[in-house]
Amino acid sequence: PAEIKVCVFIRECSSLFDIEECILFAELNKIRLNRAKKADKDAARKTQSPPPNTGMPPFGMDGPPPDFFMTDDERAGLPPIESVEQPAQLTSEILQEREIVRILINYGDYLATWEGDGDIPVAGLLLGNISDIEFKDKAAAYILNVYREAAEKYEIPDTKQFYSNSDPAIADLAINCVASKYSLSENWNDDKRKIYVTQEYEHLKQLVVTAIYRIKKRKIEAEMHHIREEMKHEQDVANLEVLIFKYQKLKEAERLLGGFLGNTIVK
User: Fold this and answer.
1) How far is CA 207 from CA 102, 150, 171, 214, 261, in A?
2) What is the SS3 assignment for 96-113?
3) Are residues 157 and 230 in the same domain?
4) Quick check: helix, strand or coil at residue 164?
5) Residue 196 lies in a domain
6) pTM for this structure?
7) What is the pLDDT of residues 133-146, one digit of tens each?
8) CA distances from 84 to 55, 137, 140 (A)
9) Helix or strand or coil: residue 121?
């Protein structure tokens, strides 16, 4: 919902500028009120002096005000923002890509303590393992590329830039990555119950490794599908043997990853 996104944005601004959230909310409400007043004045002005020979009834009679279906930017005369095209449906492939982005945004600056000397950030470990994979979801691909460019400079990007991105699809994805869908009741861990619920970051190794294995398995499955299509049309015996050899190697890798993930391979 839009209000959840506003709350997340206000919280980030409060942390960034060291201003109390209540002050920011008050200023936001003032802006909204001024916009509403301006829209009412514009509508009233247009109804008082309608353009000649339009054939349109004045506001208040048979239709909504002239700017009823306009956005705030359109009312202000700003050009429309060209947004990243949203996918028609959320496939498992896109969901896997967005899970990678979610981990990068939430835990990219955490240390992968289980890897080597434990001084490698999660972002570096994750990016290093998926360097050969390109995302199809455009919003996720944009965020991934920002992380890749930052990694080349041994840096981790500031996630705040994604929340305020001019493209709604990118901003929505980033905000959804940090907005928790569920909240634990304060009574759950009170003096009476004392029930401790583990947090996601406490299982970071499993989270990161599983995400890497799943997206690699998807890439292998895509390559296997491509080879199967090639084998259907290949006439040369020698080339066919090469394709079969490649397919068998990929099949072994698929079984191995499936074992790690607990999947049953039936193909």
Assistant:
1) 11, 22, 24, 11, 11
2) HHHHHHHHHHHHCCCECC
3) no
4) coil
5) no
6) 0.61
7) 999 999 999 999 99
8) 38, 9, 10
9) strand
Q: Mark which of 75, 106, 125 sits at the end of a domain.
A: 75
The beta-carbon contacts of 177-182 under 8 Å, at least 24 apart in sequence, are: 177/98, 177/101, 177/102, 177/105, 177/106, 178/8, 178/105, 178/106, 179/4, 179/5, 179/8
The answer for residues whose C-beta is within 8 angstroms of residue 84's C-beta and 6 or more apart is 138, 139, 142, 167, 169, 170
Tell me the C-alpha to C-alpha distance, in Å, between residue 87 and each of 19, 137, 162, 232: 37, 7, 19, 31
Residue 240 CB contacts under 8 Å (≥ 6 apart), including other chains: 231, 234
Q: How many domains does the chain have?
A: 3
| Rounded-to-integer distance, Cα 111 and Cα 122, Å | 6
Amino acid making up residue 89: Q
What are the tokens at 18? 């060291």
Per-residue pLDDT tens digits for 203-232: 899 999 999 999 999 999 999 999 999 998
Between CA 189 and CA 200, with CA 195 as vertex, the angle to 5 degrees is: 90
In a domain, 87, yes or no: no
Task: State the residue range of the domain holding 106.
Answer: 92-178
pLDDT for res 249 = 93
